[in-house]
Amino acid sequence: MGYKEFFASKRITLMGLGLLGRGVGDVEFLAPLCKELVVTDIKSEGELSTSLERLKKFSNIYFTLGGHKEADFTNTDIIIKAAGVPLDSPYIAAARKAGVPVYMSTALFAKFAQEAGATLVGVTGTRGKSTVAHLIYQTLKAAGKQAHLGGNIRGLSTLAMLPSIKAGDIVVMELDSWQLQGFGDLKVSPPIAVFTNLMDDHLNYYGGDKEAYFLDKANIFLHQKNGNKLIVGAGVLAQVQKAMPPVVPLVPPPLPHDWKLQLIGEHNKENATLAALALRILGLSEDEIKNGLESFEPVEGRLQKVAEIKGVTFYNDNNATTPDATLAALSSFDIEHTILIAGGADKGLELSVLIEALKKCKKVLLLEGTGTDRIKNELENTSIYRSITGTLDDALAAAVPGDVILFSPAFASFGLFKNEYDRNDQFVAAIKQLR
């Protein structure tokens, strides 16, 4: 059964419209295919006005906003829930009790894309998944392959990509732990899976249960079949092996010494080795892989050089939302000549190693938040700010030629910002004002 037949004549409840564009894209794709679509979100009509404006053209959509109604989850044919819906959602529990199938859009895409004859490459991990997925995708495109990029991509509805997928295409998917819950429900895994690493993250969502976080991630390989490939970073190999994957995990060899990457940091060298092995499995030549990796520029918000002003270099590492990620960024520079902009909302993670590293920085400027509250009293050379503009002005004033100003928050964005994308955009806009 193709996707059109699957959705036809069904009453669908979509849980979570959101503001990032993915939910709206899913709705725009589903509405013409299904009989009736109920869109429900805890956000109000006013909060969702931008998203709702795009959906006025459809007559078969009904909205429940500012909260959920149990009837929308029990009197329907299927539910498509957004990533990040709480594990203990009473509405999802009611749906399952009523026998209503619960899906996630990215997993449904994976199912139908594979049935259409496409090859899927899934990439997960606490850190590095965006860089590895983009490395694979951009190198495939440069080599002339028919490739697509989906999954955890800003503003992109992966489900809406289905009409463009053909037999023989390659789809590279960046997958977070929430999206992989849906893969577990469908018992599907990409035939080529990459697991970069595993660090503490999202423990507030998982109630402090590190194993639950790992097991959601593990859905990227738990349902693989004989002949599929599983590529893992050396640091996560032991834990993957304990989960008894259906195929033998592969740890990539180092890159040849004469390959010159534009990416900085030891962690990015490992990311490149993971991408290179996936590309070899996909049949690319060594020259094609070398050219692709060497020409690759950092993904936005991932240790990305964004400006050089008065001899001072600025890096945007907005997506570093954990202490481990910021520590990796700091290790890429001379820390005594690094002015760090960090801080934000707490995730309940261990901070002692981060605090010791921050004490070595030339200067630390902190954006206010519950995470900042946990570290501010441990640092002497710091100030607290409510805006990125203020931090950049003071950071530049404290810098001399040769210094690095690194924006690597180590915490989540909630509080001062709508989400991590809003924080990124405000940083980029503030940089432009400095020039």
UniProtKB/TrEMBL annotation:
Keywords: ATP-binding, Cell cycle, Cell division, Cell shape, Cell wall biogenesis/degradation, Cytoplasm, Ligase, Nucleotide-binding, Peptidoglycan synthesis
UniProt EC number: 6.3.2.9
UniProt domain Mur ligase C-terminal: residue ranges: 301-410
Any one cellular-component term (Gene Ontology): cytoplasm
Gene3D superfamilies with a match to the protein in the record: Mur ligase, C-terminal domain, Mur-like, catalytic domain, NAD(P)-binding Rossmann-like Domain
Top EC group: ligase
Gene Ontology process terms (BP): cell division; cell wall organization; peptidoglycan biosynthetic process; regulation of cell shape
Pathway: Cell wall biogenesis; peptidoglycan biosynthesis
Enzymatic reactions: UDP-N-acetyl-alpha-D-muramoyl-L-alanine + D-glutamate + ATP = UDP-N-acetyl-alpha-D-muramoyl-L-alanyl-D-glutamate + ADP + phosphate + H(+)
Classification via InterPro entries: Mur-like_cat_sf (IPR036565), Mur_ligase_C (IPR004101), Mur_ligase_C_dom_sf (IPR036615), Mur_ligase_cen (IPR013221), MurD (IPR005762)
Domain Mur ligase central: 123-233
Molecular function GO labels: ATP binding; UDP-N-acetylmuramoylalanine-D-glutamate ligase activity
Residues binding ATP: 125-131
Compartments, record wording: Cytoplasm
Family per similarity comment: Belongs to the MurCDEF family.
PANTHER family assigned: UDP-N-ACETYLMURAMOYLALANINE--D-GLUTAMATE LIGASE
Described function: Cell wall formation. Catalyzes the addition of glutamate to the nucleotide precursor UDP-N-acetylmuramoyl-L-alanine (UMA).
Protein name as annotated: UDP-N-acetylmuramoylalanine--D-glutamate ligase
